[in-house]
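Help needed: design a sequence for this.
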């Protein structure tokens, strides 16, 4: 293949892999690849699988399913191998919030490779289905078809982590038949930290075997747990470790600031913020996406830039009245600023995920599911509001935050309020 022809194949592929943030463009790029034949067929094999992967990240669910069902001729080199393609479909399906459908796809596979087992196990893990992940893991071991590898154990540990199954997670970790790496240790730190066992989490970091050095992610994980459980001493220790390692991410500062704010140590909050200014560190703004009729709509906190912002805010007023009638009380503890209670309620009122959900309500048919992608961790109040909305409006709401999926239905969340 000539160099120019090869670039013609790779350019749309770079969009499919997600360098261009527009999901519609990625899918269009994938569709253009259908014209490649002969010598370009192997590139198309890879691109088509990656297109399915982009569908899951951008929640372009219908296109993902259409891609999953395709069996494309590839000229002289044959066609895409079905097993690998169904694995990608399984990944696409469970990542769009349809974990039960993903298991049905997985069960329908005549041959299940290690990659297939890992994909479905990670799907259960991301949805907080820790008990199902453990059950499937036992089934995999009993079948004797595939030996678990490092990814398998990581997937099961993630399931235990998101479901709060601390003892099960520790048991699986201690039974590993492959050498654990820093990601496995990181999951255990997160598992213990979420459960409030912060000293044990710190001990895991400091007692890692030689050859595995604690990285910034481990200390950030501990710092995040300290924020959740308001442990100032360990938060300061983790923050100092991150500073010594040269980490300068905005999250390092924000988490420590939030620990101080939770204890109303406003002078320390100001000190951390001043340090951010000196080091030219800017806080990543929270934003949320929702997709309506193939168009992605982005919302920032307090956003009034959308063409329908007035209708969105009217819907928010209606939502507030309706869910307060069901018992909702704003959780102002999530607003870590030195301001009055009324101002805190107003700040909560306009979080980006609430705007996205309100827009979904006014833009879709009754009973249609609403899907939202959030770049940060969903806050406790937004989580509570989403539960009330799912009950008040009889909607299924799927929120994908930076850590996991939350599926709200009938006033409950798939995470069991543990995330």
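Sure. Designed sequence:
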């Amino acid at each position: 293949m000539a160099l120019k022809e090869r670039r013609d194949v790779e350019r749309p592929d770079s969009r499919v892999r997600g360098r261009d943030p527009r999901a519609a463009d990625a899918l269009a790029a994938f569709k253009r690849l259908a014209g490649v034949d002969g010598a370009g067929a192997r590139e198309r094999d890879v691109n088509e699988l990656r297109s399915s992967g982009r569908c899951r990240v951008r929640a372009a669910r219908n296109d993902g399913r259409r891609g999953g069902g395709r069996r494309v001729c590839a000229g002289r080199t044959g066609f895409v191998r079905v097993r690998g393609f169904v694995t990608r479909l399984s990944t696409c399906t469970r990542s769009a919030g349809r974990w039960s459908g993903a298991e049905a796809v997985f069960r329908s596979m005549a041959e299940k490779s290690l990659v297939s087992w890992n994909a479905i196990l990670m799907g259960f893990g991301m949805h907080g289905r820790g008990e199902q992940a453990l059950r499937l893991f036992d089934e995999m071991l009993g079948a004797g078809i595939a030996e678990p590898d490092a990814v398998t154990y990581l997937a099961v540990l993630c399931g235990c982590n998101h479901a709060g199954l601390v003892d099960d997670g520790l048991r699986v970790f201690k039974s590993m038949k492959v050498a654990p790496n820093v990601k496995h240790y990181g999951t255990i730190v997160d598992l213990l930290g979420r459960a409030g066992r912060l000293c044990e989490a710190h001990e895991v970091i400091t007692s890692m075997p030689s050859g595995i050095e604690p990285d910034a992610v481990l200390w950030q994980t501990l710092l995040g747990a300290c924020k959740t459980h308001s442990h100032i001493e360990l938060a300061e220790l983790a923050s100092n470790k991150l500073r010594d390692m040269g980490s300068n991410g905005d999250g390092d500062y924000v988490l420590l600031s939030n620990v101080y704010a939770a204890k109303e140590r406003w002078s320390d909050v100001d000190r951390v913020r001043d340090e951010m200014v000196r080091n030219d560190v800017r806080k990543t703004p929270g934003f949320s996406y929702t997709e309506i009729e193939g168009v992605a709509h982005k919302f920032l906190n307090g956003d009034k830039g959308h063409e329908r912002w007035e209708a969105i805010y009217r819907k928010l007023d209606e939502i507030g009245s309706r869910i307060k009638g069901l018992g909702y009380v704003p959780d102002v503890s999530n607003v870590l600023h030195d301001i009055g209670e009324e101002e805190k309620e107003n700040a909560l009122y306009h979080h980006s995920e609430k705007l996205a959900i309100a827009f979904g309500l006014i833009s879709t048919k009754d009973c249609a599911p609403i899907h939202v992608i959030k770049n940060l961790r969903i806050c406790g109040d937004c989580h509570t509001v989403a539960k009330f909305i799912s009950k008040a409006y009889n909607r299924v709401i799927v929120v994908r935050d930076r850590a996991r999926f939350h599926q709200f239905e009938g006033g409950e969340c798939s995470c069991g309020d543990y995330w």
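The mean pLDDT is 79.
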